[in-house]
Amino acid sequence: MNTISCSKVFLVLLVSLFPTQILAQNAILAVCDEVTFKELCKDTLQSDPTSNSATSFEDVAAIILKNTTSTATQISDQYTNLLNQGVYRSTRGVEKAMVNCIKYYKDAIGKLADTSKALQSRNNIGVKTGLLAAKNANFFCEGDFSKFTGSDRYPGDNQGITFTMLCRIVYQLTITD
Length: 177
Description:
Helix content is 77%, strand content 0%.
């Protein structure tokens, strides 16, 4: 009973002392209810300290776009490291697929930079074009690895899927078809 009373007092104090931050954070997380990948949206926002200052769909989209770019960079770096370590040199085709994947993700990073500029200037056509081009990186990379099996199989399954999902979240937050 005493623990419950302390919890209630703490909650009341927390809401009393920081009402706008708590309400704002809940409102921002509610934005995620408007997208297909709700949990990824919420997890991304909760892990990013800049989400506390978000006040609009565009702010949330910009935060998720920043995380999308970070994910693309991590994937590109991962592939570069694997290539440099010689992990995929056993088969010439696999090495070429890895080089292509690095190129696809570097291109995606450039497209996401363009998308960020378009988002800032509220250029929805630029946002749409940039996101559609960027999200293809995972699709093309998977395609290049589709003929290989076993240890030569595509190394980016989960991160690539997350990248594509993040692109989709930004798209849904900014584009009304």
